[in-house]
Amino acid sequence: MTDTTQNTRILLASRPHGEPTSDNFRIETAPMPQPADGEVLLRTVYMSLDPYMRGRMNDAKSYAAPVELGSVMEGGTVAEVVESRDPSLQAGDIVLSHLGWQSHGVQQAKHVRKLDADRAPISTAVGVLGMPGFTAYAGLLEIGKPQPGETVVVAAAAGPVGSAVGQIARIKGARAVGIAGGPEKVAWLKELGFDVALDHRSPTFKEDLKAAVPDGIDVYFENVGGHVWDAVLPLLNTYARVPVCGLVAHYNETALPDGPDRSARLMSSILTKSITVRGFIQTEFVKSHYKQFQADAAEWIADGSLRYREDIVEGLENAPDAFFGMLTGKNFGKLLVQVGADPTR
Ligand code: NDP
């Protein structure tokens, strides 16, 4: 039974050097927080685990502030209202919130969004209908701008961002080439309708990719970097677009890799092929595109052209291990931690 007097939470105990380990986290219980006027007390149902959290563990300047040592790890959550001190919400409502890695928390009612469980499973609010789905939508359509008949390549293609990128590319009439780790993920991409699915762990990956894009690559949606990017770069077409969304292959690096500096070759390719390389953080598109995304994604899910997969791990205490696994591809689909009972299932 859930303890209604204690809040269980996972704090950042130390900063990792390279790969994070369980020593970097501390689990503890604390007294249940109390909501003030305008606030709600929430019980976490699902907690989202996302690659960006690795960056928040570093004490480095970035687009968002790091998690302070001794603070709760941050993250998106789907939660049930336990007690409301705001007229807009009542006990039992399900909301999209940002409680982080804890069983309960207090938030201002105006900072959470009420979810309709009849419209979509509530877990999708942090997945295909939430931040990762939106990242794919905005990055692909605003920066990648795929045209009918063009070739779009995406890696981490079995994850929530990549799987949406490939399917939206197909919806827009482009050819989708998905890259993922291992035969199971590759098989799933084929099921989703990707024109070609490749295993980046295969010893023939570089040749496989070349064979998969006989007309070159028009859009490369960059999620990983590393050896996938090395294989993609020579295959980019003139006027190719590269939305740089994530570089998960590098998140645990502590220094630049050994070897010659290849940035001159990269810049030369960008110049001679008139390639657009544009980084983005999804938040920049929220104001302009979120509403349309919600409408489009709901329609595509309903007509079966946008499918998704969830990887749900039970129990808050298992969050660190699940998180480590995601950074090396052990997750298969949108990674969630089920922290408490889902009253809608
Ligand atoms: P995923 O669930 O896809 O998890 C990350 C995946 O990356 C792993 O499952 C693994 O899949 C793959 N991977 C890890 N290491 C490597 C490697 N060395 N080479 C190739 N693939 C690797 O994550 P998301 O869909 O949530 O996120 C995808 C990317 O999008 C991340 O880089 C993330 O940081 C970024 N992102 C950026 C946002 C923005 O606003 N810019 C917002 C949200 C996400 P596999 O087994 O297939 O190798």
Descriptive key words:
345 residues, alpha/beta, Quinone Oxidoreductase, Chain A, domain 1, Rossmann fold, 2 domains, 7-stranded mixed sheet, 6-stranded parallel sheet, 9 helices, 15 strands, globular, binds NADPH dihydro-nicotinamide-adenine-dinucleotide phosphate
Explain what the structure shows:
The mean pLDDT is 97. The longest helix has 17 residues, at 286-302. Helix 2 packs across helix 3 (160-171). The protein folds into two domains: 6-127 and 308-338, Medium-chain alcohol dehydrogenases, catalytic domain (Quinone Oxidoreductase, Chain A, domain 1, Alpha-Beta Complex); 131-283, Rossmann fold. The strands form three sheets. Strands 3, 4, 5, 6, 7, 14 and 15 form a seven-stranded mixed beta sheet that branches. Strands 10-9-8-11-12-13 form a six-stranded parallel beta sheet, with helices on both faces. It starts with 5 loop residues before the first strand and ends in a 7-residue tail after the last strand. It is built from nine helices and 15 strands. It is α/β, with parallel strands linked by helices. The protein has helices at 52-56, 131-144, 160-171, 183-192, 205-212, 226-232, 263-272, 286-302, 319-327, and strands at residues 6-12, 25-31, 39-48, 77-84, 94-97, 104-108, 113-114, 151-155, 175-180, 196-199, 217-221, 236-244, 276-279, 310-314, 334-338. It is globular. The structure holds NADPH dihydro-nicotinamide-adenine-dinucleotide phosphate. NADPH dihydro-nicotinamide-adenine-dinucleotide phosphate binds at residues 50-52, 132, 135, 155-156, 158-162, 180-181, 185, 200, 223-224, 226, 228, 245-246, 248-249, 280-282, 326, 328-329, 331, 335.
